[in-house]
Amino acid sequence: xxxxxxxxxxxxxxxxxxxxxxxxxxGGHRPILVIYDRGRVFALDNRCPHMGFPLxxxxxxxxxxxxxxxxxxxxxxxxxxxxxxxDDVPICPVEVRNDDVWVKTTFTHPDLAAHWQxxxxxxxxxxxxxxxxxxxxxxxxxxxxHAEIVRxxxxxxxxxxxxxxxxxxxxxxLANILPMLPEEEAYLALFHGxxxxxxxxxxxxxxxxxxxxxxxxxxxxxxxxxxxxxxxRHREAAERTLLAAIAAGFSPAELADALFAAETERAFAxxxxxxxxxxxxxxxxxxVGWQHAAALLPTVVGQMVSARGAEExxxxxxxxDLVALCEETTSELVDLFxxxxxxxxxxxxxxxxxxxxxxDPARIVDALKExxxxxxxxxxxxxxxxxxxxLRVARFGNAxxxxxxxxxxxxxxxxxAVHQMLTRIGTANNDAHVxxxxxxxxxxxxxxxxxxxxxxxxxxxxxxxxxxxDLPTDPETIGAALLDAFxxxxxxxxxxxxxxxxxxxxxSPQALIATLAHAVLREDAGFHAYQMLEAGARxxxxxxxxxxxxxxxxxxxxxxxxxxxxxxxxxxxxDIARRLMRGGELHQEAGSS
Length: 593
Ligand code: FES
Prior knowledge:
Elements: E1 8-13, H1 14-20, E2 22-25, E3 32-37, E4 40-45, E5 59-61, E6 64-66, E7 73-75, E8 94-97, E9 100-104, H2 112-126, H3 129-141, H4 146-159, H5 166-177, H6 183-201, H7 219-231, H8 235-247, H9 252-263, H10 273-288, H11 293-296, H12 301-306, H13 322-330, H14 333-340, H15 349-356, H16 361-373, H17 378-394, H18 404-425, H19 430-436, H20 438-449, H21 475-486, H22 492-504, H23 509-521, H24 527-543, H25 547-562, H26 569-582, H27 588-591
Antiparallel strand pairs: 1-9, 2-3, 3-4, 5-6, 6-7, 8-9
Helix pairs in contact: 2-3, 2-4, 2-6, 3-6, 3-26, 4-5, 4-6, 5-6, 5-10, 5-24, 7-8, 7-9, 9-10, 9-18, 10-18, 13-16, 13-20, 14-16, 15-17, 16-20, 17-18, 17-20, 17-25, 18-20, 18-24, 21-22, 21-23, 22-25, 23-24, 23-25, 24-25
C-alpha cells in the first residue's frame, strides 16, 4: 500500500503535455498517467483497475477514458467507472506550477479502513469478485482485524438473502481456520468467504425482519414451541419464538439446546446440511459477537422447518425401520444417562467409533447405550461419531463412484456438527441429553447406511509402523509433493501416503493443515471441500497428534485429492487484485510502444 506523502514529482512541462496529450510518470511508485483534456489536467493510476492494462493506451472522448483491453470506461475527473466489474481507477492530485505539471505520487484516503469497508460493501452488493478481493486486501493492509471483515460480510449475507446459505457456511468455516494460516492465506480465505456470500446473495430478495414475541415465556415453553413449529413447518412462528428466546437473554448453550431439539425432530434432515448450517451460525456468532444473534441466528429457521427428514426416505424404513429404532432408543435415554451419571472419566471414544462402523444397526445402538451407562457424556458420543465418520472417508474405496464421496462427506460433516453442538450444549440440563442425543442416533444410522463405501476399505498408510521410505523426508519437500499431487487428478492414495509420511516422521501437524488449507484456497473449491477441511481440522484438534488424528487428516487429504485440481480462476482474480494493490506494473511489455 502507498503511504501518505506530500511529495509531488515533475511530470513535464504543460506545453509538452498539451502537445502529446498524455504523459506517464514512472518511479518508485505506481505509474501515473497524466492527461490533458479540453483545458484541464488529470492524473490517475496508469494501470486499469480491471486487469492492469496500461491506460495510456486507452482513448479519451467527452471526458470519458476507455481502456482498450476489455473496454471499461471511466470518468476522467473522478476515476469512477461506468462499468462496475472493472472497479474505479484511483486518481491523484495534480498541480500546474509555473507552466510545469506536478503530480502527487501517492493514492490515499484520509481513513483507509473506512474507504475499503465501503468498497467491500459495494463489491458484495454487486457481486464483484475483483472489488471484493481489493477491498479485503485493502482492509488487511489498513490493519482491520479479521473478525471485523468477517462481521461485515456475515451481516451482509444475513440481510441480503432469505436464509442462511452455502456462502455463510464457507465464510464461517474459513474464518474458523484463519488462526492456522499465514497472512497471505488469510487474505485468500477472507476473499473466498466474501465472494461466496456475495454470489449467494446475487439476485436474491433481501431478508424480511420479524419481531420477537411481546411476552417472555419460560425456557422450557420456548423450546417446546420451537419443536412444535418445526414439526408443522411454521416458519414465522418458529422465527418469532427463536427471536423471543434471544430477546429473553438465552445463553448460547440454551439457544443451541432449543434449536438442536427442534432440528432433530427430523432425522438427518436435508442429508445433514440443515444441522450443519445451524452449527455454523453458532460458530459465526462466536466469531463476530453474540450481540448479532437476532440478525444471524433466525436465518437458519427457514431451512430447518422445511428440510426433508430421512424418515421420509425408503432406505431409513426398509428393510429395517431405522427411525423406529432411534425413537425407541430415545425413550430410554433419561434412564440411561441417570445410570451413567455416577461414572467419571469415560475414555472409550476410539472403541465406540469402531462399534459405530459395524453392519448391524441394533448393535450400533447397543454400543451407544452401553457407553452412556458407562458414563459417556453427549459430547463424548459426538466425538466418537465424528471420528467414525472420518474413518468412512479415510477408507473410502477407490472403486466407488465419484459422487459417493459426497455421501461419505455428508455423514462426516453432520457428525462434526453434532459433536460441536453437543459440546456447546454441555451437560447442565438432563432434558437436553434426551433430545440432543437424537442427533447421535441419527448420525449413527446415516453412518450405517454408508457402510458400502468401505467395501472393500482403502488401506490406510502409516499403520503398523509403516515408514513409507520411498517418500520424501523433510517437511518442505513432503508439502511440495502433496501440492504436486493435488495438481493432478486421482492422486488420492499418494496424498494419503504423504500425509501419513509427514505425521509419522513427527513433523508439525499445523504445517500440514496449513498446506491442506493452501491446497483448498488455490482451487475453485466446491462447498464440500471447505467443509471437509474445516471439520477435519476441528476433529484433529479433539484427538491431537495421534493415530486417530492421522486418520482424520488422511480423510481430508483423500477427499481433497479426489476433487482437485480445478480451473483456479478465483485465485487468478485474487492474484490480480493483490498485484494491483501492491502497485506493480502488470503489463509493462503490453504498455511499451
Ligand atoms: S478493461 Fe482494462 S484491463 Fe480489462
